[in-house]
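Re: [ENG-882] Designed sequences occasionally contain unexpected residues at chain ends

Forwarding the minimal case from QA. Structure tokens:
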């Protein structure tokens, strides 16, 4: 299937379902592109319409980003939250347009993010839980600064979250991810959290674990 002209460049794997298929939107990490997570597509449930989106910001050296990550002596490593919020809204608009153009089921949308893509997946789902059914959050964390004001008053009764992290991740500290279960519990969000003996990546065991979790919630 050739990608439709939408605001974000993307790749598409069609669903086996002729009408109103569930949608899985893949959001890659910093410095990567839409081809990265799309390598999962052939292994995901065939009824899913799988779309892998490219982040809007081009990096000088290579790849793309949902928001800038800056490094300087005074502040160390810090994220551009303004850009992240702009990307949050671009993703929300992209979801709405993709549902319309591809005829997907607006009540059955899954976000699958990795690293920076996970940060954005959390931001979209916690800010607009009425739009998202499932989140697979790989090797990322929740950045409260990029959630909409008053997000804690949202209705999260439909939302399900699977989160995982590598125990020796040298890019995003494990302790950042370990805050996730309590954060989600306090909001009353159904969730599963797992750790794997890997670095900043997705092991086969991790993949099959989240795939099984997702299949149960299709």
């Amino acid at each position: 299937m050739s990608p439709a002209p939408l605001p974000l460049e993307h790749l598409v794997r069609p669903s086996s379902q002729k009408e109103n298929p569930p949608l899985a939107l893949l959001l890659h990490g910093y410095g990567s592109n839409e081809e990265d997570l799309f390598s999962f597509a052939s292994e995901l449930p065939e009824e899913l319409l799988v779309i892998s989106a490219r982040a809007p910001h081009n990096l000088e050296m290579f790849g793309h980003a949902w928001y800038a990550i800056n490094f300087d002596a005074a502040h160390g490593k810090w994220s551009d939250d303004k850009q992240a919020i702009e990307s949050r809204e671009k993703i929300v608009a992209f979801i709405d347009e993709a549902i319309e153009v591809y005829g997907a089921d607006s009540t059955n949308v899954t976000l699958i993010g990795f690293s920076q893509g996970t940060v954005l997946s959390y931001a979209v789902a916690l800010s607009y839980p009425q739009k998202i059914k499932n989140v697979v959050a790989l090797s990322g964390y929740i950045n409260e600064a990029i959630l909409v004001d008053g997000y804690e008053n949202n209705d999260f009764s439909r939302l399900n979250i699977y989160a995982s992290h590598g125990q020796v991740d040298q890019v995003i500290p494990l302790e950042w991810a370990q805050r996730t279960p309590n954060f989600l519990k306090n909001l009353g969000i159904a969730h599963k959290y797992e750790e794997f003996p890997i670095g900043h990546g997705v092991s086969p065991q991790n993949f099959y674990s989240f795939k099984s979790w997702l299949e149960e919630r299709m």
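QA comment: On inspection the terminal residues look reasonable. The chain is about 30% helix and 25% strand. Proposing we downgrade this to a documentation issue.
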